[in-house]
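Re-running the complex after MR caught last week's input typo. The corrected sequence lines follow. Everything else is unchanged.
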Amino acid sequence: MAVWIAVLATGLGCYALKLSGLIVPQRVLADPRVRRFTELVPVALLTALVAVQTFADGRALELDAPRLAGLGAAVVALLLRAPFLVALAAAAGTAALLRLAAG
Amino acid sequence: MTAVDAAEHAGHDPAARRSAIRDGLGVGISVGLSGLAFGAAAVTAGMSTAQACALSLLAFTGASQFALAGVLGGGGNLVAGTLGAVLLGARNGLYGLRLAGLLGARGRRRLLTAHMVIDETTAVATAQPDPRSARAGFWATAISLYAVWNLSTLGGALGAARIGDPKAFGMDVLGPAAFLALLWPRLTAGRAEARVALAAMAIAVAATPLLPPGVPVMLAAVAALAGMVGAAGTAETGPAAEREGD
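Corrected-run output:
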């Protein structure tokens, strides 16, 4: 029962946070400085997320060689202007192959 | 071609819209498959299959779900675990600030749209050159990801014992690679964006050992403030910024 309450409370809390951003009055967002901030926020949060997902495991910083190589392969693919799905496949494929090779 | 040029030429370009849908489906299906890992982790941590599926249906934000399962599996306090999981969802609120104007969601429709405001949908929507493509990309990502994430949660929960380590298939790299690929045009076209990105990565990595999971990424929002100051008065804007008023 306690687990069900935690599941429902997490669902409700997460939904409330998602909704909160959408219902901020548009006149608040009309200010050019606020608007510029909201444009840059996804860039900041998503790159921070990439960094954390790449260099951290929980609260520990770690350098996982196959993961770094996978991200490196994605960067190479992007520099070569490869399509989005090719970049994803290069990333996952590189990491998987290196892990397979390492046994 | 810079992002601003692209925005001016894209307009209501059907090709841009198709490309947005393709990106959205790609993200939705590939990232959605990590629901297998969540379903397996949740059941291994002691949740029932129904609880794991309910969490995917109701919370629908991966980081929060993994966090709750982690606390449960580690025998941690469920109240603190719930608060931590919800805190991890706070960045979705910031995404909503940007998406509100871009998606033009008003009235009761916002109640449905809100459930889909997460990392993946934001990454696809904000990567598009015009609001129509942004909306198409948002919903293509939302629908495919919701379907695949929930089905694969069920699959992972039922097959927990039989599923190998998802890392063996490189699935842990799919999320960051997808976000990087979607951000790429903005990072290479806008100097302000590149500055914000570098600052955000530095803040998040430096704060990771010091703060609870989830907080370092939220803290990186400060980098957007720095970018705003640095870019005041310049014409560097995001690709979807120019044509928002329709």
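None of the earlier attempt is carried over here. Residues 131-158 of chain B form the longest helix (28 residues). Residues 13-174 of chain B form one domain.
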